Amino acid sequence: MGGLAFSSGDSPLYTPRMPPAVYRHVLDSCCAKLRELYLVVAAPVPGPAKADYGDIDIFMAWERNVTSPSSTSTDPLKPPSPSITPLGAAAHLLNAERAIKTKPGAMSIAIPWPNDLPDEIANSYTEDHDDATKPRYIQVDIHHCDSLERFHWTLFRHAHGDIWNVLGSILRPFGLTADEVGFYIRIPEIEPLNRKQAKVLLTNNPSDTLDFLGLKQDQELWEEPFASAEDLFEYAATCRLFQIRPLPDEENDINAKNDDNPDHTTAEDGDIESSVSNSRSRRTKNLRPIYRKWVDEFIPACRQAGRFTTQTATRDSVRSEAFNRFPGAQHAYESRLSDWRKERQRQSLFRDVIKPSIPEGEPGKPQPPAEQHWRSTAASALKKIIMQDDYSLGIRPAAPLRDSNSGLYDEDKVRRFVDEHWEWVGCVAWKRSQGRYAEKLAVQKGARGADGEAADGKANEKADEKPDEK
Fold this sequence. Notes:
The protein is of the alpha+beta class and 470 residues long. It folds into 3 domains: 20-158, Beta Polymerase, domain 2; 163-254 and 265-327, no CATH class; 337-451, no CATH class. It has 15 helices and 8 strands. The protein has a 5-stranded mixed β-sheet. A 3-stranded antiparallel β-sheet has the order 6-7-8. Strand 6 and strand 7 (183-186) form a beta hairpin.
């Protein structure tokens, strides 16, 4: 959270930015302590050439009291309460003065600025004299990973600071994205309506992800920060999907020349060009200096130099490559899309196909209540026959109304069935409805009669119990 989690509210804490020497000293100290609770503890590789740090991120996996139960009985750092959470135990161990649960598996804590800094580090720290007397704190964001796979992925996802903002701008036009769980391909039909449901997981393996993107994964590249933002940009630009898209005016000219090329991919083909993504891009650009430099400096410089202007892939070709590269991805993708299409059709079939196919009364004149009720009964009965396979009225389609492969309804067949059977279905359903209504009234009348007889009987009993007044 950039060191701002505790800077507001009723009792804000002063969490100044840390110079690199202070950051490394506190990081090493925190990691050493946390390794008494966890077997695996690490911080992501920081962004390039950072002059200072707003907070510290630490990821942890494999609790010792879970992995090695025998060690807990003699562990002097055993949590003070059996009910304390893993993150709570870590916060307690680091002497957190304040804690905020930010999301599942993550917590921001505020720890006091260390008093035991070596002289060479303490002397390197300079701060505004107006704030020198304030108690200083450091924000540490601790993350509990429930598996080693999640640990490795989240470290990879947070490595190099803003590199995933940069890579995300490259990948989004091809329907690819990465989050805290893994690397995904998006389904374009679902994406405009439900971005979360549109994501289909390809992998949570960093090496497989880099390999698919054509990015080098040399050890030194992912264990040390880049020397500069330019170095980070040059590395990101080696992604095999990176291409400099034409400016809007240039693109219109190119589109005019490519009308006969159905495989041509324009900027509009990618959701990064959508209004939502443009808004997100603007917010990121305003908040993240590295991404702003990528957009405002690196991209224009490459365009001017004619670098990376050759189209290398389309969204369709990348999808095919992903299906070949990641086993099971195609089945998951197609199943998700099929289920979504069927559900969307189920939501609209009754409203848009079945009901409108039942003729209304004379246009422009309101229908009598009885006729409205009849039409509603007919529509409900048709819905049960068509969508619920309910043939209790003795009426059923002569042939299936759904495609055997896709499971989707053939809407033309549905309309024809309704056109041919709405009156028959309406009459049978109405007769059954009226019969049930009559039965209900008879039962209610019988109940009232029984209640009346019982009441009369009780009255007679009370009358018999009265003493003779004579």
